[in-house]
Amino acid sequence: MNLKILFITAISILLGMGIYFLTNPSYEKSLEAKYYYELADFEEAYKLSKEAFTINPYNKMAATIMVQSQYSLKYVHYINDAKDYIHQIENIVQDGISIQDRAKIRIISEIMIDRYKKLAPSVVIDQDLIKQTKEYYEKFQNLFKKAHRIS
Predict the structure, then answer these.
(1) CA 141 to each of CA 53, 101, 121: distance values in angstroms, whole numbers, following the listed order
(2) Which end of the chain is more exposed for a tag (fewer CB within 10 A), N or C?
């Protein structure tokens, strides 16, 4: 009899926690943020987790997703900027390279190399993002070396 009462009490507590978790707006936004984080929509995940954290600062799920999204966004921004700069450098190289163009390539490469060094590696960041970021970093290192060698 005591075991039956204990079991019913445990189920009731778990059910109450589940209902609270699903109906509380902070946790609802946290779940939605986690969904967007898994879809690699880091901006939306950051926005939703920040809202959830604002509603309830004790929501650890919101805090975790917010921090993870923030780190991932740094990598995404690096990759997007790297694509733009590589495209600019390709356009410069097509028209022929002058001394000023070499200086531009060196400066762009140096900026992107420094930005990469400032990125904080973390276990929570998607490994594909880290791999892609490292590939661009290596491209900029090679461009920097070539720009120095030519001048």
Answers:
(1) 39, 17, 19
(2) N
Q: Are 26 and 56 in contact (CB under 8 A)?
A: yes
Question: 79: closest CA among 107, 49, 115?
Answer: 115
Q: How many domains does the chain have?
A: 1
Half-sphere exposure of residue 149: CA atoms within 13 angstroms, side-chain side:
6
- Grade residue 73 by pLDDT with cuts at 50, 70 and 90: very high
Residue numbers of the domain that contains 87: 2-150
34 alpha-carbon distance from chain centroid: 13
pTM of the model: 0.80
Distance CA(79)–CA(64), nearest Å, equals 23
Here the tokens at position 118 are 């400032």
